[in-house]
Design goal:
about 260 residues; Nonspecific Lipid-transfer Protein, Chain A; single chain; Four Helix Bundle (Hemerythrin (Met), subunit A); two-stranded antiparallel sheet; 2 domains
């Protein structure tokens, strides 16, 4: 029988440090834009770069709310409502570049402070994300890291999925297969394979996450490619044209 291990336990302190580093890199990319470029389309449907930047800033504040909830035990939702979230993004989209940069920096500082203020004993506190998914506070820095890293790609400034750090790609694959799409009814049973022999299973299967033992043929759709290509497909940042499949066509993956 093939054993599977769950997504690796989050490292709260290291992930929070990685968020700061990723934010600094994002700010460098954003700083190369100008006011006109902020109003141009991003790679996300119906959003300009300004919409995207406003979203990244408001996501930091939303995660501050969750970190506050974890620290105090007082229910503090990410957003007042879905409508309020969308309205804040729309209201902030058309601001000048300098205002966006200031907002990104100040919201990142608030996230850093909230993460630093959370006692280790409260990191296992369970709370609710905006989509109703239950999550431990321990994983919030990694969720923020993914927001910053992936949305830097969505800016459309020449930064691609293949430029993401290898450590992030590995952690994101563990999260996507072992948490995000684990048991997802809209994702077929899939085994992902990397060129170095590593394997992950996810979707409509009881065994998800990294595969620690190879038993030969499996009743899964097998998708092979580099970690960057696999993450690009699973996150909707690539169509998967470079991936090889066995057992059926490459399926569509639900949006994150």
């Amino acid at each position: 029988m093939t054993d599977n291990v769950p997504a690796s336990a989050p490292d709260f302190v290291q992930d929070a440090a990685s968020v700061r580093e990723a934010t600094d890199r994002l700010l460098v990319s954003v700083g190369k834009l100008d006011d006109e470029a902020v109003g141009e389309p991003s790679l996300l449907p119906d959003w300009t770069r300004g919409h995207l930047l406003a979203h990244v800033a408001r996501n930091a504040d939303a995660l501050v709310n969750l970190l506050t909830w974890a620290r105090t035990g007082v229910r503090t939702p990410m957003y007042e409502s879905a409508a309020a979230r969308d309205a804040d993004i729309a209201a902030g989209a058309d601001r000048p570049l300098a205002v966006h940069l200031d907002d990104l920096r100040s919201s990142a500082d608030r996230f850093d402070a909230a993460a630093a203020a959370l006692p280790p004993a409260r990191r296992q506190f369970e709370l609710e994300m905006r989509n109703g998914v239950l999550e431990r506070a321990a994983r919030l820095p990694f969720r923020r890291l993914a927001e910053v890293a992936l949305h830097r790609i969505d800016l459309g400034v020449g930064y691609g999925i293949d430029q993401l750090p290898a450590a992030f790609l590995d952690a994101e694959l563990a999260f996507l297969t072992g948490v995000k799409f684990a048991g997802h009814v809209d994702v077929p049973a899939v085994e992902l394979r990397a060129p170095d022999g590593r394997r992950w299973r996810t979707g409509r299967t009881e065994h998800t996450g990294a595969v620690t033992e190879d038993t030969g043929d499996v009743p899964y759709l097998v998708v092979s490619g580099s970690p960057a290509e696999l993450v690009g497909w699973l996150t909707g940042r690539a169509k998967g044209a470079a991936l090889d499949t066995r057992g059926g066509p490459l399926p569509a993956v639900p949006p994150l």
